[in-house]
Model the fold of this input.
Amino acid sequence: MADKIFVTRQTVSNWENSKSYPDIQSLLLLSQLFGVSVDQLIKGDLETMKQEISQEAVDSFNRESRIFAVMCIVSAVTFIPLAALALARDQWWAIALWAIMYAVTMHEAFRVEKLKKNHNLHTYREIVAYSEGRTLEELEAAEERGKRPYQAVFKVLASAAVGVLLAALAIWVAGFLGG
Done:
């Protein structure tokens, strides 16, 4: 190959080891030799590098997501027992303990949301693909972008439903402890 594009084998070795890059003339000869456009030679690597997801970033996202999930479960499961303890025995430290757990949960939620924003993850499918260290194909990505407006409405409705359920639960606990 080196002979066909009029460079030394050492030059090709330097290109392969990222010590240097081909000049314009060499790129033109390489494109003719391999039967691809110069654009494909250059952009092919750029597209691959853009789509390659850092394993460290994936591991960080997965770790933060697991911490958030555990904190959500702990906050949900401990709310009623700690509220009952605080109301029945006048142990207000129990509510303070739950408030701290809730604050940690919200902190993790913001960290996960920041990671999602940094990696442009909006839909469940995008998040799953990212957590597996891969990206969606172009058609799949277009389908997911089409879902985003509807997800905003769903988030509002789901948040309202959770709020109503928590209010009903708080009324039930107050009635149970009061009666």
Summary: DSSP finds seven helices and no strands in the chain.
